[in-house]
């Protein structure tokens, strides 16, 4: 059960329960009786879902429900979000942008119907997709199927804003590359960086594609990870370790995506205190809630975080 919870946390998903078929039919009937939906009243175009399915979506969606990790991508492209999952709702990076936006989940079809969306965005693992499709055009993505920047471009295609999405990607890559060059000049080409996160009584180290700023550090900046981290975490994306073995995975610098309300007593142990990165003041603590995602808004925050911690730039 703990592993299931962790996976949901790491992928910023919400555990969704299936509604009964009778409830779903009743909800669908109410939708049909409720009059013309937003999606029916706007011009439509065809979008190809990742499985090859063609979906009729609004040319310019006006009421979007996001049941996944992509709220920040939609918000960055000025999409009008009317409903989001619980993890997105509690993301401090979105503070001020989700005021008045309802927290929803795929097992509450009634609430989604009330929001009258003209587009629903979810994950391939989202529950009740067939019922959601009866409410509004629904597009799903498999987490990690696309590169983290490719995903933003794909969201741009969905919203009819591919040009804007590509422009953001180009600018972000250029800024991250420039920042990486400055960091390597300061800390050395061979300096290593480890990203860790605490969850309950365990620690996790991360590869180069599991949010927490890993895509920026390793893919865009080209910073190095310790060999032990590469060996254990690159393929699965993350790897659980005990605090006692952290020294084996610790790089010259540590990015600590910290859950302050979880177990952190390991920080007081001699094992932790003896790690060179700790002794040298090279541990940079981040709010885990701001580091969970790799959407456009969260990426901007993470890049600014690295600029401040490594280079002293505000």
TrEMBL record:
Belongs to the bacterial solute-binding protein 8 family. It is a lipid-anchor. This is Iron complex transport system substrate-binding protein. The keyword Magnesium does not apply. InterPro entries: ABC_transptr_periplasmic_BD, Bact_iron-sidero_bind. Coiled coil: none annotated. Residues 63-314 form the Fe/B12 periplasmic-binding domain. Residues 22-58 are annotated as: Disordered. Keywords: Signal, Transport. Gene3D superfamilies: Nitrogenase molybdenum iron protein domain. The keyword Disulfide bond does not apply. Residues 23-34 have a biased composition (Basic and acidic residues). It comes from the Bacteria. It is found in: Cell membrane. Residues 1-17 form the signal peptide.
């Amino acid at each position: 059960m703990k592993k299931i919870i962790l996976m949901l946390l790491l992928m910023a998903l919400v555990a969704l329960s299936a509604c009964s078929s009778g409830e779903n039919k009743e909800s669908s009937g109410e939708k049909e009786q409720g009059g013309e939906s937003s999606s029916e009243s706007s011009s439509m175009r065809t979008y190809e879902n990742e499985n090859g399915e063609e979906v009729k979506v609004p040319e310019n969606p006006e009421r979007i429900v996001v049941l996944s990790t992509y709220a920040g991508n939609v918000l960055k492209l000025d999409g009008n979000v009317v409903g989001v999952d619980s993890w997105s709702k509690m993301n401090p990076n979105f503070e001020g942008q989700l005021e008045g936006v309802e927290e929803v989940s795929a097992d509450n079809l009634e609430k989604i119907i009330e929001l009258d969306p003209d587009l629903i965005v979810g994950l391939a693992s989202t529950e009740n997709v067939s019922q959601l499709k009866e409410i509004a055009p629904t597009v799903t993505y498999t987490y990690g199927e696309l590169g983290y920047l490719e995903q933003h471009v794909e969201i741009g295609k969905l919203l009819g804003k591919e040009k804007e999405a590509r422009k953001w990607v180009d600018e972000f890559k250029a800024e991250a590359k420039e920042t990486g060059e400055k960091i390597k000049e300061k800390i050395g080409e061979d300096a290593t960086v480890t990203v860790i996160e605490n969850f309950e009584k365990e620690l996790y180290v991360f590869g180069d594609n599991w949010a927490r700023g890993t895509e920026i550090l390793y893919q865009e900046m080209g910073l190095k990870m310790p060999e032990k981290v590469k060996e254990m975490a690159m393929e699965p994306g993350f790897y659980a370790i005990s605090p006692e073995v952290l020294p084996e995975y610790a790089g010259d610098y540590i990015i600590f995506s910290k859950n302050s309300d979880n177990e952190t007593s390991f920080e007081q142990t001699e094992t932790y205190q003896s790690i060179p990165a700790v002794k040298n003041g090279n541990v940079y603590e981040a709010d885990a809630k701001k580091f969970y995602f790799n959407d456009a808004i969260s990426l901007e925050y993470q890049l600014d975080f690295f600029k401040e911690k490594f280079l002293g730039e505000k």
